[in-house]
Amino acid sequence: MSRDPVALAERAREGHTASGARLIRMLEEGDEGAIEGLRALLPHAGRAHVLGITGPPGAGKSTLVDRTVGELRRRDRRVGVIAVDPSSPFSGGAILGDRVRMNTHATDPGVFIRSMATRGQLGGLSKTAFEATTVLDAMGFDVVLIETVGVGQDEVDVVELAHTTAVVSIPGMGDDIQAIKAGILEIGDVFIVNKADLPFADRVAKQLTAMLHLREPAEDGWDPPIVKTEAERAKGIAELVDTIERHRAHLTETGGLARKAIRRSERVFHELLRERAAARVLASQPDGGASVLEALGTGELDPYSAVEALLGG
Q1: Which of 118, 134, 260, 265 has the fewest C-beta atoms lying within 10 Å of its C-beta?
Q2: Left, alpha or beta for 99 (phi > 0: left; psi -120 to 50: alpha)?
Q3: Using one digit for the tens of pLDDT, what is the confidence trace for 77-102?
Q4: Residue 261 falls inside a structural domain
Q5: Residue among 112, 178, 167, 118 nearest 145 (CA)
Q6: What is the pTM of this model?
Q7: CA distances, 114 to each of 98, 169, 253 (Å)
């Protein structure tokens, strides 16, 4: 298969899944040439509904995603899935690799599943998830679903990428409302109480309702609904997808899609600017900044003084 990124981009647009997968892999590996393929796809992106599903480990997100994909396929939606996993400390790759809980969709040409490693990124999202979403969008997938790593308090970055963010809670995890931690309550467009057959599920839903009343009203007037599901038995999944599609319609009517697209572009811009500016500063040093790092290690410089030394301040 060709490694020419522009050729890969063109074939991906024509429906060649392997070409899209190859381009995503090149982007994930930091291949600078792959950006040309991404640029070729950007004018064709912007149609997919990007759905983020986040929440604490053990909330049943993967099973919920699997059932949600099944319901979307029943509605004849093409679905791309980006499952962001913790990084292996040895290889840097995704620990869980291909999601075994989604293997029912492995042979469905209308579903694309990709596991990605966080590679140390804060916020529960891989940097390349932004780029992979663009590739899948331009390939014609109707919904791009992002399942985040589930690190609890750092699960807020998904809101910068997703049009609709669904926050999953379950009863019986110590404190009933995990969603109130570190801004999680503020990012949700839809709240899901999964494993709703367990004791105290109704109490979790009531507490969420009470907490949402304390939240600042959304600028577009959307009132986040609470949906109870039992993902293992596929109960409540149709209602969940109805709610997600209702939110998409609301965004379309209120101009929310355009606002989120601007916010996403600004986020990517700032990330790229920081990354490339730092690389250029280090490259401008005779030793690539090694002496400054050594001084940091010995305690001769603190981080603030090190930055000033590199920037000539």
Answers
A1: 265
A2: beta
A3: 999 999 886 544 334 444 444 455 56
A4: no
A5: 112
A6: 0.85
A7: 7, 24, 31
